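Quarterly update from the structural biology core.
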Amino acid sequence: MTIRFSGSRRRGRTPLGAAMLLVALVVAACGGGDRASGSGRSTAPGDVKPVAAGKALAVVATTTQIADFLKNVGGGQITISTLVAAGQDPHEFEPKPADIQRLNAADIVFKNGAGLESGFVKFINNVPAATPVLDLARGLTLRKAGKTVDAHIWHDPLNAKIMVNAIGDALSKRDPANARIYQANAAAYVQEIDALQGEMQRQFDAVPAAKRQLVTNHDAFGYLVARFGITFVGAVIPSVDSNVEPNPQDTSALVKKIKAEHVCAIFTESSINPRLEQQIAADAGVKIYSNLYGDSLGPPGSDGDTYLKMEATNTRNMVAGMTAC
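Predicted structure, tokenized:
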């Protein structure tokens, strides 16, 4: 085996500058402490209060998936700002001063929850007290990978529907004048997700059970695996957090398991450098299928630039890889 480890595999990671540190200190000083572990602050749905009518709601989404849900539910009635950009890994996101300004000016904030924002939750915790912060993992059945909660909740379309309905309800309470629009949009979009789920099920069911196996960059697809009857063989990064660095022992064990289970392919993700996966695939004698959309939607114009396209593309690529041998 010729696998080599040569430092970080992450894309585009940069340290916080002096200005960022100054802003962080100011915000923390104004907000009553840093609660940067777990999911942090959350507003109960029943505690969302109306704001003054007459302007579009300023809405902040922490992730690209949530921003896309908001676009479908809110339509032209809201303005949306997204913290984590398309193609960016939320596990290593570092807010800029402009992000903090948008948070502080928001009428309502939607976060993924389940610990996904743990690296920057202190900034969300310190938005003005009157600003609702909706945790879209509330009420979902969360899976664990070891002792860690898996935050990749959107990969189960049933979870996505619950998140969309929660968005519709929260927007309706914050902006009652447009409640009918939000509720109608949410209902229509849920029907689209239903159609997506049916097509995903049809495609996965067409793959023989013995070949319905998945090896990925990191453990990002556990909810999809559970929903559609897929066997998760392993991940190059043996964690739901893509910041974890794999060690040679884990990698060697994964290569052996890929061979023993007669896995056809390794799947890489669009937000993670695939160099190590390429080495593993060569040593295991399997194919590489590139650019699943795991943690983020793709950039505009890509096959994964909306939630529906992301999941449809992932399904198509997974099925192709599973049946490649």
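Strands lie at 57-61, 78-82, 108-111, 133-135, 144-145, 148-149, 213-218, 231-237, 265-269, 287-292.
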